[in-house]
Design brief:
Elements: H1 4-7, H2 25-52, H3 59-67, H4 69-83, H5 86-94
């Protein structure tokens, strides 16, 4: 999929589900990063779903809220970092 642009004017990110050639080190690393990002989004979506559907009294929300508070904060941080532009990221590293 990474070489798709050579054969057609198609963005590799327009395909879903994404595909990776995990026999290649760089593609495997890309897969791992993509998986982590999707996991972070999933955690946040679940947390928001429970909160917005007034399920704050549910056992699932209580468990998520108490035992996985760190997991939710980390997931939020991952998603926020994904939204930062490369320029902003480089500036923050220089500070």
């Amino acid at each position: 999929m990474n070489s798709m642009h050579m054969y057609a004017n198609v963005d590799q990110d327009s395909f879903f589900p994404k595909s990776f050639d995990c026999n290649e080190t760089q593609e495997f690393e890309s897969f791992c990063m993509y998986f982590k990002i999707l996991q972070a989004e999933s955690i946040l979506k679940n947390y928001l779903h429970l909160a917005l559907e007034n399920l704050r009294d549910s056992e699932e929300y209580k468990l998520l809220d108490l035992s996985d508070a760190l997991e939710v904060r980390v997931a939020l941080r991952v998603c926020k970092r994904r939204m930062i532009s490369l320029g902003e990221l480089l500036e923050s590293k220089n500070e």
